[in-house]
Amino acid sequence: MISIENVSKWYGQTQVLHDCSTKVAAGEVVVVCGPSGSGKSTLVKCINALERIQQGRIVIGDDVIPAPASRLSAIRARVGMVFQHFELFPHMTVLQNLMFAQMKVLRRGEEDAQARARGYLERVGLSSFAAKYPGQLSGGQQQRVAIARALCMDPSCMLFDEPTSALDPEMVNEVLEVMIELAGEGMTMMCVTHEMGFASKVADRVIFMDEGRIVDDCTREQFFGTTAQCSERAQRFLSKII
Ligand code: ADP
Ligand code: MG
Fold this sequence. Notes:
Blueprint: E1 2-11, E2 14-24, E3 29-33, H1 40-47, E4 55-60, E5 63-65, H2 72-78, E6 79-82, H3 94-104, H4 110-123, H5 139-151, E7 157-161, H6 169-184, E8 189-192, H7 196-202, E9 205-210, E10 213-219, H8 220-224, H9 232-241
Magnesium ion (MG) binds next to helix 1.
């Protein structure tokens, strides 16, 4: 589904991704963790073509990045992305947030867009919030709206960049539950998160990044097993966050 092949990226003179390679199979859930500044956000932004790569390539289904400019919005539409800070449109209702890109990017009719929006709102347990504005919702509810908004675009895979790290602790679980459900339904997912409970429950694989490199790329069993088979650096990192 997603193939990352020898990807390197620079911001100006600074190299932030070093020859990164990995694959995410259809239906697989991959958790990406690692210290702050290790390149996790940059990597997921490159997969969504929000950032350009200077070396290597990324294959997503039938698309290859770097892609011609004319394909970029189609690629972004097919790769669902959920950020740390929700990024809902504050001046639109929840329902309008869910309908906007469907109509603008996918050119869906209003009725069709609204039906899907209501369907996904129900899926994330927020049917009664359709007419509210994002500012009237809790952080956890806003993040569930952001997930529903991404799902409205019929994404072939979903990327999450620390979706729970800006939330108050009591709201983390309601968002993780939606993500666990999605994983159970067979959605292909790449999740940057330090929620190791989530990772040990649903991750097929765990990638550990450090200084722009993929240091570990192992199965959940290898990563969390009692005789942990991940690198010493990853084990040191894990011991600090668990
Ligand atoms: P992480 O998500 O793992 O914390 P990031 O991908 O955000 O790491 O950042 C990786 C490196 O790239 C860091 O050194 C960061 O300072 C740098 N960086 C991130 N975004 C930019 C940018 N827009 N311009 C320049 N440097 C950036
Ligand atoms: Mg980040």
